[in-house]
Amino acid sequence: MPLVKLSELLNDVTDNTYAVGSFNVSNMEMAMGAVQAAEELNAPLILQIAEGRLKYSPLEILGPMMVAAARQAKVPTAVHLDHGFTLETIQLALDVGFTSVMFDGSKYSLKENIEKTKAVKALASRYGADVEGEIGRVGGAEGDYKSVDILLTSVAEAVQFAEETGVDALAIAIGTAHGNYKEQPKLNIERLKEIAAVVKCPLVLHGGTGLTDADFKNCLANGIKKINIATASYDHIAKRVKLLLKTKPEANYFDLSHETVAAACENIEHHMLIFGLKDKA
Ligand code: 13P
Fold first, then answer.
1. Are 155 and 191 a contacting pair, CB within 8 Å?
2. Which residues of the sequence carry a binding annotation for Zn(2+) 2 (predicted)?
3. Contacts 24+ apart (CB under 8 A), 86-89
């Protein structure tokens, strides 16, 4: 199955019965675990890495590996740059063959965010790649960046942003935040419904870690088509590797590598089942 574009996967979601999971990976083992999960469930997959994590996993090295993993996968797999902030990183992601990039201009004014996102869209279209934008502001911190407060997406701004930039996917803020929640978040499903009623491009939910199964189902039933999961995978892998070292102190490097693949796969399968992805490849 070929490497596919983000829009191919998201535009397939027409009946609000499922959403495509987009899973952050930081090494070969996580990418292998994600592909294994998707193949076992016969589910479409998005592999992504955020600019904030590149100091641990340089894009020049991990990027081609992600593209290779997608090309080898037996299910349709898109490769996406998550939270791109600089044109240099976005250009590099496109050069190594990512099929989509996110430009996160949420810290700018609406006007500047639109201008910068349009420039990214023009660059990406030269590669035949898709673009995800963000309007409003998802809270918390992605990677090593400073934590930011949630700024709920305004319906009028979402419409204007989507129309003027022509983005292929739009991340909105409806009460979620990146990382582990200190208290259970309250999602603004009414706002999601209002945005989904008037914005034509697929909507993206960031900050998936820590939401309940009911939250996920409520979001996808009301118009979310892409759901991002990062922290839950990192935490689950760390937990299983620590447990392995406790129960099998003689574990060698390859045991740890194998555990990482298995833990990534387990967490991703868990989320794919909640997102209704079984047999949606
Ligand atoms: P979590 O780390 O909260 O799962 O968020 C993932 C995300 O939205 C990546 O952009």
1. yes
2. 104, 134
3. 86/51, 87/119, 87/120, 87/123, 89/51, 89/54, 89/59
Residue nearest (by alpha carbon) to ligand 1 atom 5: 207
What pLDDT is stored for residue 147 in this prediction? 77
List C-alpha distances in Å: 262 to 5, 241, 259.
27, 10, 5
26 CA distance to ligand 1 middle (Å): 13
In contact, 204 and 138? CB cutoff 8 Å: no
Whether 209 lines ligand 1, by a CB cut-off of 6 Å, is yes
User: Of all atoms in ligand 1, which is nearest to the CA of residue 206?
Assistant: 8
Question: How much distance in Å is there from the Cα of 227 to the middle of ligand 1?
Answer: 9
Specify whether the CB–CB gap between 124 and 130 falls below 8 A.
yes
How do the domains of the chain map onto residue ranges?
A: 6-274
CATH superfamily assigned to domain 6-274:
Aldolase class I (3.20.20.70)
- State the distance from the centre of ligand 1 to the C-alpha of 206, rounded, in angstroms: 5
User: Once rounded to an integer, what is the mean pLDDT over residues 120-128?
Assistant: 98
Q: Quote the tokens at residue 206.
A: 């960031």
Whether 130 contacts 169, CB under 8 Å: yes
Q: Which of 204, 231, 235 to mutate to test the pocket of ligand 1 (most atoms within 8 A of CB)?
A: 231
Q: Is 99 in the pocket of ligand 1 (CB under 6 A)?
A: no
Please give the residue that has the higher pLDDT: either 114 or 139.
114
DSSP per-residue codes, 112-124: HHHHHHHHHHHHH
Q: Active-site positions?
A: 82
- The CB density around residue 261, as the number of other CB atoms within 10 Å, is 20
Q: Is 209 annotated as a binding residue?
A: yes
